[in-house]
Amino acid sequence: MKYLIVKGWLGFGDRLESLKMAVAYAIAHNLQIYVDWRDPMWSHGSEDFYTYFKLVNMPVLNSLDDIPQDATYHPAYWKENLDKHLSYEFVKERAGDQLNLNILVKPFDADVVVYSCMGARTLYPDSSFFGNVFRVVDPRILSRVKHHYKAYPVSSSWGVHIRGTDRIKDRRRLISIQSIVSNVTCNGGMNKSNMVVVSDDKEQAQIWKNYYPTSYLVSSFNVGSSKGIHNMNKTEMSVAKDEINVDMLVDFFVLSKCERIFTTVKDSRFTQEARRLHPVVDRILS
Prior knowledge:
- The protein is of the alpha/beta class.
- The chain contains ten helices and ten strands.
């Protein structure tokens, strides 16, 4: 094995979980890694992983074109299809090709291993190794996160992630907010003066502010959709995908800085990864 190609899938929290496992695997086997996030869930044009991030302090592959022509692949399907990107349609179409490698542990008898970020993953409560290699490079994200850190005492605040879109129905908006308000309040929220809120749903964020009116709202874009923002195509969005990505990533890294984080969705990978990266967020943004 010489190279590991990581194909993106689903939302940012899922991508981070998968990427952390891929990074750990690449380090363990001394593989050059390339992260391919040109799929339609992440990119509607030129956006990819390297628009916003880079990997350092480990072997990296600068371009897919640098892979030798005679390289062998696992799964073999990717040898002639490395420019294909994951989508719901693609996954359904290729269901019989066994492209899902699941948890990366064992070595494979091939030069190039292509990991499609689907299925089971190894989770890493200690993300120190990832903080050593993962960096934000987009100046828009760095400057806006720095602005929020200066404008509000984020590091001593409680973070509140209010997830709407595909995770909440209209009739459950009020119930969802009441639930998180009760949780925060029972944990001493009435005695906590600093609250940071990130949300993809402006209506839910406003309901929250009815209970905690002095909360600091980070999110700039609140593009409501019953499908989830990562599932919206170009024609359904009034704002460029790149701008949505930047706003979401600013939300994530501000949330990661908070001393404690609450969410309306218990299994939110976005929130779970924000908690896991809290100890190394300054390194990631350095």
